[in-house]
Amino acid sequence: MEVTYPIVRKTYQAAEIEIDPGEVLRYLGYKKDLVTAEDISQVEAFIPEARAAIKPAACWGRFAVQLHPKNKITFPYGEVISKDLSRNLAGCSEIFLFAATIGLEYDRLVQRARISSMAKASFLNAIGAASVENVCDQLNEELRQLAAGEGKSLRPRYSAGYGDYTLENQRGIFDLLTPSKYIGLALKDNLIMVPEKSVTAVIGIEIKE
Q1: Mean pLDDT (the chain, rounded)
Q2: CA–CA dist 66, 74 (Å, integer)
Q3: Phi/psi at 55 (5° precision)
Q4: Is 34 helix (H, G, I), strand (E, B) or coil?
């Protein structure tokens, strides 16, 4: 299978990224019904500094996939055995692959915070996680609208490392998207992404019934 669509780069303004204090607290392990106004205020105090370091960007591509018996999937980067992803992509012959990040400057902000306050670093880490998820949500909606214009819909996005779709698949995703070229996102030998506050995902494209 050959790539028939170009890789598309997308940038966002930091001001466009929604940072929900409740979501940040969820990343920190707070139970929703126990969150106080003081907890919310504590998160909000860190948001301006965090937002100043956010440099949101993403890239995506569209690729053909083939589903086979016994949970085998043929991606452009090779064959994968995954019951979970096969179920997620049921009925799909195409996918979107994307990579999103909030940039290396944010990693540096968290690293500096660790020197003076691990508590602050924890809050910034959670704010970063919520921020990159919001970048993913915004891109996901743009791709949903693109697909809807073709009379198609999207399956829920699915990332390597979830279920039995192993983290090793990051190598194939990076080979296809080359996100270092488009958004400065690299993959280390241990499969950790740099910048750390980054996400890759697969989204199935299906024809509406």
Answers
A1: 95
A2: 5
A3: -125, 80
A4: helix
